[in-house]
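Request: Not sure, any thoughts?
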Amino acid sequence: MSFHHRLIELESELIAKEESERGIAELTFECSLLLEEVEQEIGIKLAAKAPRDWRGWICYRRKNSMIICRGRSFAEGSIFKSYRVGLDTTAGADAISDYKRGYDVTPPQDIDHLLLNFGTGESIKTFLWYGENIAPYRLIYQAEVSSASSDELKSAIVEACVWIMKRPKDKTLNEFLKDCQ
C-alpha cells in the first residue's frame, strides 16, 4: 500500500469517526430497517433462549447502534434449567442479566466485536467498525444509508466475522491483515 493511499485511508477514517461521534438523534426508518435486516440475518440476540451447548454469532442493540460478537449459551435457574445466550466470555452470564434489566452492555476487552452505527455529515451514513481488546475501532465499511445496499453491508459483516474467526489471538487485526497480503 502506497504512502499516499494510506494517508487518504487515515483521513477517511478520521472523518468517519467525527461523523459517527455526532451520531443521529433518532433512528430513521431506513436505519431501523437496516438494523432489523442484520438482526434477522444473524438470527439470535443477546439473552435469547438457546440449546444447551450453543455457540455462534449474536447481536444486540446499544442506543442507536448494534454490537455483533461471539456468544454461547449459559444455564439459567437451578431446578429447571433453561439456557440463554450471553457473550462468549467468562462474564457472559452477567451480560445476560444486565441486558435483561435494560443496562447498557459494553463488550468486554477480551472479545473481538463489530459495531454497526450511524452518523451524519452531508447525509446519514452507516458505519461498520472492528474492535479488539481495548484498541480503538477500525473502520471496515461506510456508505450512505439511502444508497447503501444491505447486501454490501452484510458482505462486510461476513468478511469481518471471518477475520475474527481466522486471526490468531496473538496478533492484532493489522498484523493479521499484513500477513494475508
Q: What stands out?
A: The chain has a mean pLDDT of 84. The chain is about 40% helix and 25% strand. Strands lie at 55-62, 65-76, 82-87, 113-120, 124-131, 138-144.
